[in-house]
TrEMBL record, chains C, D:
Listed PANTHER family: ACETATE COA-TRANSFERASE SUBUNIT ALPHA, KETOACID-COENZYME A TRANSFERASE
Enzyme class: transferase
Pfam families the record matches: CoA_trans
Record's protein name: 3-oxoadipate CoA-transferase subunit B
Organism: uncultured Acetobacteraceae bacterium
PROSITE patterns: COA_TRANSF_2 (PS01274)
A single MF term (Gene Ontology): 3-oxoadipate CoA-transferase activity
Amino acid sequence: MPKSKLVSGFAEAVAGIPDGATIAFGGFAGPGTPFNLIRALLAQGARNLTCVSNTTGGAHQPRMPDIGMLVENGQVRKVVCSFTAATRPTDVLPFARFLEAGQVEAELVPQGTLAERLRAAGSGIPAFYTPTGVGTEVAEGRETRNFDGREHLLERALPVDFAFLRAHQADEVGNLRYRLAQRNFNPVMAMAARTVVAEVEEELLPAGAMDPDSVHTPGILVHRLVRVPPAPEGLWPARRAERAR
Amino acid sequence: MPKSKLVSGFAEAVAGIPDGATIAFGGFAGPGTPFNLIRALLAQGARNLTCVSNTTGGAHQPRMPDIGMLVENGQVRKVVCSFTAATRPTDVLPFARFLEAGQVEAELVPQGTLAERLRAAGSGIPAFYTPTGVGTEVAEGRETRNFDGREHLLERALPVDFAFLRAHQADEVGNLRYRLAQRNFNPVMAMAARTVVAEVEEELLPAGAMDPDSVHTPGILVHRLVRVPPAPEGLWPARRAERAR
Amino acid sequence: MSGDAAPKGWSRQQMADRLAAEFGDGWIVNLGVGIPTLCSNADTGDRDVVFHSENGVVGYGPVLPEGQEDLHLVNAGGQNVSLRPGAAIVHHADSFALIRSGRIDATVMGAYEAAANGDFANWKVAANAKGGGIGGAMDLAACARCVFLILEHTTRRGAPRLVRRCALPVTARRVVTLIATNYGLFEPAGEGFRVKELAPGLTLDEARAATGAPLTD
Amino acid sequence: MSGDAAPKGWSRQQMADRLAAEFGDGWIVNLGVGIPTLCSNADTGDRDVVFHSENGVVGYGPVLPEGQEDLHLVNAGGQNVSLRPGAAIVHHADSFALIRSGRIDATVMGAYEAAANGDFANWKVAANAKGGGIGGAMDLAACARCVFLILEHTTRRGAPRLVRRCALPVTARRVVTLIATNYGLFEPAGEGFRVKELAPGLTLDEARAATGAPLTD
């Protein structure tokens, strides 16, 4: 019989993450970010981490647990992100002074390349070619190759030791469903990781209660599940209506 | 307002397929095979086709419309498949004598490589590396490269002009859901194709009636939908319990 | 991208509306962070336009008013948007598969600089800056059928953003097809820009004075 | 792979059952066309074994009796199977992503030949044959943690299928970890095979006579 992957709480969910681990964190602009697992990792204290995520954190308030906080807490050696600075020149992320001071290394990767490198790692594809970034600073010193009359960059797979995810629903064997824009990087990070830890918003379903056609991440990729308690104890995405005007 | 992609019937669904087209056909051992679209293509008569599918057809009875029939009908120049012969030496496919006689060309591709080449075409990835096939006849004369101490083959994307799919549910803008093992190659063929034609088992849903989280193939990839009438007019998968004993 | 000293010509929503008028029927349009997201508020009339967001939301609509937001649903700018009938969600790798495979008819992005040769820059605030914000911009710029930009015509200090060649590190080369600024609509034309339309109240001479490359009618 | 002239030793289901006894708790096991599919009928006791089929079915169970089949649900051999609680469906590219990324603990395949050096052949019936049936075999053989084979010990004509080196074009090189035949369980050992177990009623001499490479205890 399948065993339940539910663990007792957030401390157990992040137990045993060693110094030097590479961890991917799901999430895009709030939804799908494992806020509670990040908070637990801040307390757990593993150091010398490599953190893979879309951003190091936004400039928005209220600030939620993010990669920048792990950096500020002295836990991070390197980040691999598509944003290592805010898009508005007027927003300065707390992360920026650590980067300027050389206290953290950063690999800046176009977002689609980041997603594809994670998927490749989870697909046994060691390398692939993409047209993204050709002719830019990102391509400097890099191997290129012409296919069908167009230059492409060689990109390598990006395997990770752990993926920290946030899902909406799970069954006890770890099948996951995300809700709306919460999906984002989570499924490909699950593919790329050797150990997958997911915080889950709803009560766990028994095995067999989730429609097999509606599973987003198959349970065989998932190792630890932990339930997010309702706010204020559990952290949830906040309202983020940007003032574009 | 979005327009419905439903066409009047199978003749309209395959109208305008030109001679020389490359067409991918979904399906694996029955489920997900667009039997009715293949039957319509046999009647439509386009020639000199390149057909991409898992097999050229099984040896099982009752025989359903398959790529082999298009070959027998003189419509096919080349097939790209993971099976161009049956797995049992005692089963001889009708396709075999056309292949032996040189009346059709065949490119035999490992199944995972076939799926990945289609996905790559639908992902703007012109080429990727895979460990599959290294050291075999499939790799002869092919470009290889060592990554992480292991040899890999360079594989090229496999774009197609048309994909013929079979889905269980669709809404009028073309969002598709497959049921169980019907999914197989269908989503990646939809990605690889410039024009996607899907036969659909259930009554079309209005736009907005399908849960956006439960869509398997987004409607922006799909161009023509046609409803499969119930048997005997519409063709459905048959029972296929193999005698393994 | 710029401040709130009321600029000449079009407002931000007007810039977005004007660019949205260029979207063809049946187009898939990706909207980037900043002013571009205002395009999903535009009235596209009879035209069926599907808005795509890099985070995998296919078919979204206007930003929702406070209190009606769904916290699980954001666009590329992190704004809580609505879904239109027929919407679908895909994961990030599939979202960029749509982008790189040429399924996006137009991408609308903000920029710091747009050059007459079709280059543009929107990911690094200074050539020597450490760090940057690429996001999905390089994938979109390299692969969308049309690359549209929306930006203020000048910096806060009055320096032109439409220039002959970019001084900042570029996002992609020779890809920009159309630019909306508060001054009007412009097309890169090699050594200068073609003026497609001027915002009401603006003269060609005023536009020339604020532009870092020749303007032609 | 062979006919029905009742062979010595284990029946096909017994071969499958014996190999299934080797599956560890928590293993993901892929079953190929033919005899291997009989493994999903085996009783795995307390062990949690998830059966994966190359067509994207994760977590299936026994073949269903006639009249109870779901026509949308087949395993790699096209048999109508059942689902176990916790099953999930993925598409073909994701199914092979699981395979190539090393998520499959064991793959069980049929074969025409298995060699002492760990090579095996199961996709072409003759070296000069036009066409073949690769299916998912090359991906699975190259990437699964353990490659198990099930095959009749000899051809219908009595020729050995366990040989020193393959005469047929190989599916993958140096990958086979365990072989079940009607004669017993065998492990490739370089120049010969190690006998792990003999089927009841068979002697080592009988097995040696029917094998194309040395057998050791």
